[in-house]
Amino acid sequence: MASTNHNHDLFGAPDHVRHNFHCRVGNPPQKSVPPEQPVAVHGFPVPGEQSPKAATVMNDDFFLSDAKWANLKNLDMCDYVVIGSGCTALAFIEEALRLDPCKKILCLERGDFWLPSHFQNLPLPFKMVLGGESETFPFTLSAETYNNPELGYCHGSCPFFGGRSTFWSAWCPQPTPPLMRDFPPGMIATTEEPGFWEQAKGLLNVTSAADIEDTVFGDLQKMIDQKLDQSEISQLVPTADFSQPAQMAVGRSNPTSTLRFNKFSTPGPLLARNNTQRELAKEGKGAQLLIRLNATVAKLKDCSDGYVRGIQTNDRILEWNNKKTKVVLCAGAFPNATLLLNSIPSARRTVGKRVTGHFLTHIAARVPISVFGKWNQKPDLEIAAHYVAGTHPETGRQYHVQITAIHSTNPDEQADDAARECPDYAAAATRDQLVGSEEYVVFVCATLGEFTEENPNNFLRLNHNNPDPTTNVLLQYTLVDADKKLWDVMDQATYKTIEAMSGDPGALEYWDENLHGWTKKHPAVENIRVPGIVHEASTSFVGDQAHGGSLDGLYRPHGVKNLFVTGAGILPTAGSWNPTMTICGYAQDLARRLHRGEGN
Fold first, then answer.
1. Is 111 helix (H, G, I), strand (E, B) or coil?
2. CA pseudo-torsion sign 323, 307, 109, 154
3. What is the model's pLDDT at position 23?
4. CB 427 within 8 A of CB 405
5. Pairing verdict, β 356-368 and 326-329
6. pLDDT for res 58
7. Alpha helices in 143-232 (DSSP H)
8. Which positions ≥6 away from 249 have C-beta within 8 Å?
9. What does the pLDDT look like over 119-150, one tens digit per residue?
10. Rounded CA separation 119/52 (Å)
11. Cα-atom radius of gyration of the chain, to the nearest Å?
12. In Å, what is the CA distance from 588 to each residue of 89, 91, 178, 275, 595?
């Protein structure tokens, strides 16, 4: 075991601040360079570096440099080691430092810095980065899943700083207790504590589509909300019981901002907290937040007495002697489970034995604007976003419809704005659907249904043929009768929702990809069901071991005292609701409970 050293100095005041253009008065720039580091400044006395690396520039300002990382071996002075940099990592870090800015936190991210914000907040060409090489698959998919034409594959990870937060749809519905099937009473009670949902919404800037009220979300939004009013939804869509304007993480980050639609992602807030902690450290009122990129965690070390005492990364082992340092897993349901399976032998009894998530249907339709009568049509782009949810009448399994309605009078000229303010880019109207639809409202519905938790043929298990501990798992999803019945019901519910919005089902046309055009007929089932499982969940859920649970009520693997798990893996069932806001709420709850001394 490594001996104690002075690594805690890394959390203290920065040794120097690199000169930048914000330093306009005061000391000349050369004074900002440490005397032991004689380098050229502004071309004196010799030309400066001509090929700076992006990673080097970012490390100087925000991340732990290679030199400091090389000297970091002992973490006795560290309070929390957070693995991952996505939404639950931000939720935990932000809440922990809000409660105590002196907490010493090391955040380990497996990837590099790539996008500074959600890709929809960037210029239109960045749409090309969605999927493809930016998505990795840290598992081996079973042949049974791969060969199933309705499933095909499961969406992977985004191995960069910020993770999936730079790509997600940002839809944030709030589940009610009846929708949290099989959740322990304590988890449900947590969501009913004062401020639980408000703090999660505040973190993510969640706002209603009805409240965006910019030039894009306006009269069309109001019309769709009226047509799908909650008071009538069960008559319009017999299996539905809930309807509301979409709740999305797109709101203003502060009350005075004039930016009304800005999709949330974690890089900006994490770097903002990094700056805040640096300033607090300079004043002796806090500790620096340390973030290390390209640090892949392969295994947790030495849990013999119920405490994790080390972390093996791709290039070093970090150790500690105390029982104070805590590890918080925020890397996603599959990476978290993989780490548990490789590190905690007792976890193999339950972790990965249950796997849930969502399957999808996409249906696009259009209706002439003339059917809307007195609708105040504008020459500008208009978009609406709405959410309808329901259940299978017999099984009680859940689905929801994410509705995007769009009226574009000039698809080519309005392409930038349409891409930026699209509620769900993965289910957006295509150019081919919009061109020729200038006198129509186009509906695009992405409908999500939950995989039942009662399917032992869905699993994530160790793959002993793979020596890489970061990917040595076999993943399988299959469909059972409960899934197939729900999929049929949610397809019909989607058509009923579209008919209700149109007001005139006879005027509707549907997009058929086989024809690559509009038709009066419903497309064939195989043309609306989308391969690709999303929102994987339940791999290490909270619950008693006797009932298959992997975590105790404090989100710890049973028998381990200083290791905590966040993310959708902790949810006993997937429901149909998008999980991000809920799992951020639970990550904030973890930070609050640890601050109160629980688990010590």
1. coil
2. negative
3. 56
4. no
5. unpaired
6. 81
7. 143-146, 185-191, 196-204, 219-227
8. 170, 171, 172, 204, 205, 206, 263, 264, 580, 581
9. 999 988 888 887 778 899 999 999 999 999 99
10. 25
11. 25
12. 9, 6, 22, 21, 11
Distances (CA, A) of 497 to 199, 201, 360, 445, 491: 32, 27, 16, 9, 10
3-state per-residue secondary structure call for 9-50: HHHCCCCCCCCCCCCCCCCCHHHHCCCCCCCCECCECCCCCC
First to last CA, the chain: 22
Q: SS3 of 561, please?
A: coil
User: Per the structure block, which two tokens stand in for 163?
Assistant: 């993770």
In the block, tokens 């381990």 appear at: 560
User: What CA–CA distance (Å, rounded) separates 12 from 186?
Assistant: 38
Distance of CA 250 to the CA centre of its chain: 13
Residue with tokens 């105040």: 376
Closest residue by Cα to residue 94 from 456, 599, 596, 584:
584
Specify the 3-state DSSP secondary structure of 384.
strand
Q: Which residues of the chain have pLDDT under 50?
A: 1-6
Query: Which amino acid, 89?
Result: A
Rounded Cα distance between 36 and 159, Å, is 36
Question: Residue 116 is which amino acid?
Answer: P
Task: Write out the two tokens for 496.
Answer: 């009923």
> Taking the CB of residue 475, how many other CB atoms lie within 10 A of it?
26
Tokens linked to 190: 């947590």
Interatomic CA distance for residues 407 and 401, integer angstroms? 19
CA neighbor of 337 nearest in space, from 218, 461, 467, 424: 461
Question: How many residues are given for the chain?
Answer: 600
Pairing of strands 326-329, 563-565: parallel
C-alpha dist (Å) from residue 51 to 30, 56, 58, 87: 20, 11, 14, 33
Q: How far is CA 390 from the centre of its chain?
A: 23
Q: What is the pTM of this model?
A: 0.95
- What token pair was written down for 297? 């965690």
Largest CA distance in the chain: 79
Comparing C-alpha atoms, which of 425, 484, 390, 430 is closest to residue 151?
484
Please name which of 544, 53, 68 lies closest in space to residue 295, comparing C-alpha atoms.
68
Q: Is 235 exposed, middle or buried (0-12, 13-18, 19+ CB in 10 A)?
A: exposed
Residue 551 DSSP SS3: strand
- Our CA angle for 336, 338, 340, nearest 5°, is 70
Beta bridge partners of 445: 363, 403
CB 86, CB 135: distance < 8 Å? no
